[in-house]
Amino acid sequence: MTWSEMQPVLSQACWDTLYMVGWSTLIAIVAGLPLGILLVLTDKGGLLQNVVVNKAIGQIVNIARSMPFIILMVALMTFTRWITGTTIGREAAIVPLAIGAIPFFARLVEMSVREVDGGLVEAVQSMGGSTWKVVRSVLVPESLPSLISGATTTVIALIGYSAMAGTVGAGGLGDVAVRYGYQRFETGMMWITVAILAVVISLLQFAGDYAARSLHRRSGKTGGLLLFKPLRGIFPGTVATDAVKKS
Amino acid sequence: MHPCPGTPTPAHSTVTETHVITTSGLTKIYRAHRSHGREVTALDGVDLHVREGEVYGVIGQSGAGKSSLIRCVNLLERPTSGTVTVAGQDLTALAGRGPRAGRELRRARSRIGMVFQHFNLLSSRTVQDNIELPLEILGQAGRARSLKALELLDLVGLADKAKAYPAQLSGGQKQRVGIARALAGDPKVLLSDEATSALDPETTRSILQLLRDLNRQLGLTVLLITHEMDVVKSVCDSAALMEKGRIVESGTVSELLATPGSELAAALFPVSGEATGTDRTVLDVTFHGESATQPVVSQLARTYNIDISILGAAIDTVGGLQIGRMRIELPGRYEDNVVPIGFLREQGLQIDVVGPAGEVPVLVEEGAK
Fold first, then answer.
1. What is the DSSP letter of A168?
2. Best mutation site among B77, B168, B192 for testing chain A: the one with the most A CBs within 10 Å?
3. Which residues of chain B have a CB within 8 Å of the CB of A144?
4. Contacts of B109 in chain A (CB under 8 A)
5. Domain ABC transmembrane type-1 spans what residues (chain A) (predicted)?
6. How far A124 CA sits from the closest chain B CA (Å)?
7. Inside any domain, residue B295
């Protein structure tokens, strides 16, 4: 296969992957964030303590999270048809991808939000803040760097899941690797696919780490990878930690 | 640290006889989860009366129930029984039944400022935005909020730190921001939960001075809890000693100092000195007001022809009062000295006989949780 033959196939595959992962990430964040916060709030000692709701959400999240994606995709076929009118193609793949990613992200949100210092919640309560105010001004902003890391992990996991979406005719890079690399022994095509995925995943991880780190740096917490330290000079953060002054 | 801005502190206090915080029969029992019958009584019928405009200190060891007490005052902790009244409003009646705070209780809380041991500033917000937070909760407009925040920053001496993040501040500066934030809603009452316990001695002094100035300038009533006697000594008008969930002593500092055998008074103003032999009587003589000028020791020696040794003596300012205390030793047992002791009491002095165990109870200073 020549490059001119491969190029349209690959660009279509990249676009398909981007389309599926983009939409399902968006849905996963929109639904997973409130779900994760609700898991924390309804837990014992939480602001909206409710054991029944907590156990129910927790159970659903656990089951959905441990389900192999390819089985989830098949199992959700009826639901997918009800939502999109079809079980084949990119749109049809978005439904199981999103459903699979919601509990995944919700657990990551739960872990991040649990890390927030309870004293901050108490401070807002002592000012007369409502639970909604606590969520908006404490739980989410204080865990934001960690939430961004969680979203990055979710996107990367979704790229992995999306490779299986080829089985429902959704296309994408995974589908190309299977059809050309496995079924037609087009090794060149497969390696290019692998290289593209490697580059995309690295870039995403880098962007996620960078965003999380610059927020961390502002709030003066330490953490993140030392690897990116030299980049500070190139991308100055909002406030440099070096400016820490004591009087 | 930054010096406190504003006018020099007026010497007179702003204390009135109105009670602004009252708790009656306040009880808090924690039930250990899933263990039948295991209960911890953190508060055991606490009656607290804080007068308007005073700085009231509650002191006690860790686990004495101080934290539960202050957290019950704004109902962050729900008391098991008893009532809490702040500025004439019965908060326990507003609380409702569920664990969630209803609108009315939240409204009442916004009029009570609170300062925390670990500052509890939001690291994701600038100093100014932290101070604006209670104003956001009160629903004030953006412009009014920032004006108020800058005014408060000026009041606590951090006008230049508005755009800084809490991580860029020292502990003392963080607590100043915490105080500014607590004052944003123009509260009548400020609760201070071990506000200086995480600070070094010098910073502690400057923060206490700030609280004292705010108390004087704004007529702010301050209820503070602490495990450090120095805090009570330097800023409090009144104090209470807590032990095992009960208030065992309370009153204004001058009342306490005038109470014979008061543990708090002894801890506030200790004198030391051991008896030189078993056949001796050791007395703590406390002078305040008029009696301080009387030449009592020489009178005593002349009148009864006894030799008096001075074991220890000190003069100090406690709660704004000049007070002197002296530990003296008379020859002979207590029974032999009833008459001289009577003479000293007649002179208007406060006499505490130091028992053979010889030691004034010491309040353990240990870190709060």
1. G
2. B168
3. 124
4. 125-128
5. 14-212
6. 8
7. yes
Q: Tens digit of pLDDT for each residue in A172-185?
A: 888 888 888 888 88
Are B66 and B58 within 8 A, CB to CB? Answer: yes
Q: What is d(CA B173, CA B198) in angstroms, rounded to the nearest whole number?
A: 12
Closest CA of chain B from A110, distance in Å: 19
Q: What is the ipTM of this complex?
A: 0.79
Q: Are residues B105 and B243 in the same domain?
A: yes
Q: Is residue B326 part of a domain?
A: yes
Which among B91, B139, B126, B136 has a CA at the least distance from the CA of B112? B91
Residue A237 has pLDDT above 50, yes or no: no
Question: What's the total number of domains in chain B?
Answer: 2
- Give the range of the structural domain holding residue B43, as residue numbers without chain letter: 19-111+187-257
- The Cα B347–Cα B338 span in angstroms is 15
pLDDT tens digits along B85-130: 999 889 988 876 666 778 889 999 999 999 999 999 999 999 999 9
Residue A231 has pLDDT above 50, yes or no: no
Q: Could you tell me the CATH number of the domain that includes residue B338?
A: 3.30.70.260
Which range among A109-113, A237-241, B21-25, B255-259 shows the weakest confidence by mean pLDDT? A237-241
Contacts of B1 in chain A (CB under 8 A): 247
Domains of chain A: 3-243 (1.10.3720.10)
**Residue B179: CB partners within 8 Å, gap ≥ 6?**
B115, B156, B190, B195, B207, B210, B211, B214
B197 is a domain residue: yes
Euclidean distance between CA atoms B232 and B224, whole angstroms: 9
> Cβ–Cβ of A120/B122 closer than 8 Å?
yes
Out of B107, B122, B134, the one facing A141 most closely (by C-beta) is: B122
Give the residue among B48, B92, B88, B109 at the shortest CA–CA distance from B245.
B48
Residues B100 and B198 in one domain: yes
Q: Is residue B303 part of a domain?
A: yes
**Contact between A141 and B136 using a beta-carbon 8 Å cutoff:** no
Structure pTM?
A: 0.80
Domain harbouring B45, CATH code: 3.40.50.300
B167 and A220: CB-CB below 8 Å?
Answer: yes
Q: Which pLDDT tens digit goes with each residue over B237-283? A: 999 999 999 999 999 888 888 777 788 888 777 777 777 777 888 88
Asked if A127 lies within 8 A of B185 by C-beta distance, the reply is yes
Shared-domain flag, residues B38 and B61: yes
Chain B residues interacting with chain A (CB cutoff of 8 angstroms): 1-2, 74, 76, 99-101, 106-110, 112, 114, 116, 118, 120-125, 133-134, 136-138, 164-168, 170, 172-173, 181, 185, 191
- What is residue B356's predicted lDDT score, i.e. its pLDDT? 57
